Amino acid sequence: MDTKGDVTRRLAEYAASIAYESLPPEVGATLKRLVLDTLGTTLAGNTLGVGCREAVAVARGAAGSAESTLIGFGDKVPAALAAFANGAMAHALNYDAIGPEGGHLGVILAAPLAVSELVGRVSGKEFLAALAAGAEVTARLAVAGAQSASGAVRPKALDGQLLGYFGAALSAGRVMRLTAPEMHSVLGLALMQAAGTMQMVLDGDPPAKAIYAAFPNLAGVLSALLARQGLRAECAAFEGEAGLFATYYGGRYSGQALHSHLGETFHMLDARFKPWPTSGVAHVFIEAALQLMANHDIRATAIDRVEVRGGSWIRPWCEPVPERQKPANAAAAANSVFFAVAKALANRDVALADFTPEGLRQPEALRLAERMSYVIDDALGPSGVVEITTDTGQHYAGRVDTPLGHPARPLTQAQMVRKFRHCARYAACPVSAKRLDEVTAQIDRHVRVPDVSALPSLVSPAPHATRAPRSRTP
Description:
four-stranded mixed β-sheet, 6% strand, single chain, two-stranded antiparallel sheet, CATH 3.30.1330.120, alpha+beta, 2 domains, globular
């Protein structure tokens, strides 16, 4: 096992040297979508996100310089705390973009955006280059961990949180224009803070699970700030005997996936933008349920039993069965295959309103969830099957292999904009239609924007006008 840190050093050098002009057009387009999508999910998290009120209160209550914006609120707090609170809101609804093999890409936006306000006059090109550095390394880490040795036991790491430490740190460091050795230290400092296990999911998603993206963004900014101050932490953060993969993945990973064709092949292009505010695990089942209801015009009240079938990867999202059938909070609901399918059957859609307190109590959806069971069938691979039996004995089955939002079936730009606008309806302080138009236009022409700090300002009130969050239902 290499303990010299050659792989870590190579990734640090890549992240330090990446330039917008070197990125293919399709990468630039994906990065713009990440910015639009994550701003939207952050605004929705203002009022709907479990745990976000507490995260914002902590950020507001800490003394320090007014450096970076709490998105949707307008307050300015120290950059690290803004990254903490904004990261919490970005992922709290499980509506943010995911990358290959479960690595969340949208969650790393909060760190470089907060640092951009701290540094000042960061151009759109520079910001997108910084975001590319973090997103690509995060995606490669996810692929490397998934391509472990044949027969390896899947690690009990929550990849969306754990891998985000490194992506957030690299993006923040790139905004600061840190050197390659400093970026190597950034990765070592991120490793010292990195955490994230599946235990929160296995225990039914208590409320704190919803804000897991707060911690990688906080750590990312701290890592970059410490490295900029000269604190050295160069180490074999990824490949060392106590590095990321040895500690969390049993030492099994694909080195080729980490460093092969850097700057030529972009794993971030496998990003999935979600059409529904749930774990991506549920999406094949949501779509299968929606297709059954549309194709056969089934009345929800006539459904007697529902069975979902999928590979063993769905088990944590179906167990414990009673808790997944009647989730206790929005975070648990977003991670429940049963709840997601029940909403699709009851309402012929799954929307943000389904995760408000009122939505969690919808009688028809809860009745359907109680009538659900699941079967593990590893022969299905990533596909999902939903089978419905009605009260008259009629039987319907639907299967989806590739859900909407997958890179093979991407959302259109119009769908992305509609999602952003819908999310913005839940912002703590109302954002005008004109402002939303300005945001989408600015992101579209991001390469010509002289200072990206205008983005948080466009979706947030002036600091002196900030007020307490309004009701969770707009």
